[in-house]
Amino acid sequence: RKEVEQDPGPFNVPEGATVAFNCTYSNSASQSFFWYRQDCRKEPKLLMSVYSSGNEDGRFTAQLNRASQYISLLIRDSKLSDSATYLCVVNADRYSSASKIIFGSGTRLSIRP
Amino acid sequence: EPEVTQTPSHQVTQMGQEVILRCVPISNHLYFYWYRQILGQKVEFLVSFYNNEISEKSEIFDDQFSVERPDGSNFTLKIRSTKLEDSAMYFCASSESRLAGGPGANVLTFGAGSRLTVL
After folding, report:
1. Contacts of residue B34 in chain A, CB cutoff 8 Å?
2. From B43, B101, B113, residue closest to A31, measured CB to CB
């Protein structure tokens, strides 16, 4: 099983739709979780951290399921500007080993008018 | 909003040549990193740097690579003798403190990247 695994997509949805994607991780000791957004040929930018209780930021909701070892990202009322690749990032180490921060390969999302 | 700046944005070089990529981390950040992303692939960790020394490095970061903080602001990645497979986007990142796990963990702020093309 890959350390961090994402459906590569692409997810192609109409503007205004709700879309969700998951990311699974293999290390049950993983401590912190993030969603980053990466536009084509640009740098990753933090979208949101994922907390145990789940968290929401506007149209974006992130959930963590430790029992099943996955995190999810839900985007409501999708906008054309949401088109990007969404990277799942997992920090497997409580004691801050940068090498234990693992990036998923990303899920491509394309919003059509 | 403070940002990490990188130069050059794109460099084309011949195989075997030395390349230096430069980064200016966010001024109050203490931890610096280099990552690379080969086109179409995932972001991979190369090296982390703190207190003027390497904290960690990955298997990718072999003897051809080195990092330096020559002054109070720049953080550089040098590739001594480039290979074709070094062609990638190189991202510098910084964080305010250690990337500890757990709630409220510090996050990485990335620069816009330097695209290296080795011919």
Report:
1. none
2. B101
